[in-house]
Amino acid sequence: QKWHKIRAYKLSRYLPPTVWKAINQGKDEALQAERKKISIFFSDIKDFSQLAEEIEAEALNELLNHYLTEMSKIVTQHGGTIDKFMGDAIMVLFGDSNSQGVKADCVRCVSMAIAMKKKMRSLQLEWYNQGIKKPLQIRMGINTGYCTVGTFGTSSHLDYTVLGTQVNLASRLESAAEPDEILISHETWSLCKDVIMCRDKGEIQVKGFAQPIKVYQVADFRKDLGKNQSYFE
User: Fold this and answer.
1) What's the predicted TM-score (pTM) here?
2) Which of 107, 54, 131, 119 is nearest to 218 (CA)?
3) What residues contact 131, with CB distance under 8 A and at least 6 apart?
């Protein structure tokens, strides 16, 4: 039993919690693809490829694993599902399982991004003290919309993920963001604006979309503002 528990624990680290829970409970049929309105988060480290050329592979691996570990803790704290790691990029879902409602899922997603941005400040100091002179900065993009969530693949290999135009938009917003910036779509803004202070950045042209996309820059939580501080939406 101890041997099986150890193997099960090791295996669980390679699977999304949603998949692991369903398989453990014998409910993997519930993982079939379905349409859901969820919030999708993407992030990556600016100029990470350049950094990979400048430092040793062992040091890079240690840095990346430390970064992903700290970001994963924040994802767990906010109730998100890590869809995948793509090198230094992270994709997270809110509302694919254990949804608290579309609005609450969206607020949790944006709150997570703010927490990640703040955590990067301490990581930047830590890395600077380790000899990395140029501070590593992350770009983040969030979109909310209807996607197809579930398992996709063949009889020999299945992948639990999310597909759809709204996923592509979240990825494009991350690519369009400036270093240390969180860009969100109009749909996401409309759901979190009561809680999150944002700045209207107008419209941007996004690859793969015929019409310009309305975007907003996330600033911070409204509750953290003093009574006399002004904000703009």
Assistant:
1) 0.86
2) 107
3) none
Q: What contacts 81, CB < 8 A, 6 or more positions away?
A: 16, 17, 18, 75, 92, 93, 94, 96, 97
Residue found by looking up tokens 């999708």 in the block = 40
**Angular region, 141: left φ>0, alpha ψ -120 to 50, beta rest:** beta
Q: Are 135 and 124 in contact (CB under 8 A)?
A: yes
| pLDDT tens string 73-100 | 999 999 999 999 998 999 999 998 888 9
Asked whether the beta carbons of 223 and 194 are under 8 A apart, the reply is: no
Size (the chain), residues: 233
Look up residue 100 and give its two tokens.
């608290």
Residue 154 tokens, joined: 């063949």
Q: Is 79 left (phi over 0), alpha (psi -120 to 50) or beta?
A: left
* Alpha helices in the chain, H assignment, sequence order: 2-12, 17-24, 48-54, 57-78, 102-129, 165-176, 186-192
Strands 182-185 and 138-153: parallel
Task: Give dist(CA 146, CA 126) in Å, integer.
Answer: 39
In the structure encoding, which two tokens stand for residue 53, read together?
Answer: 């050329």
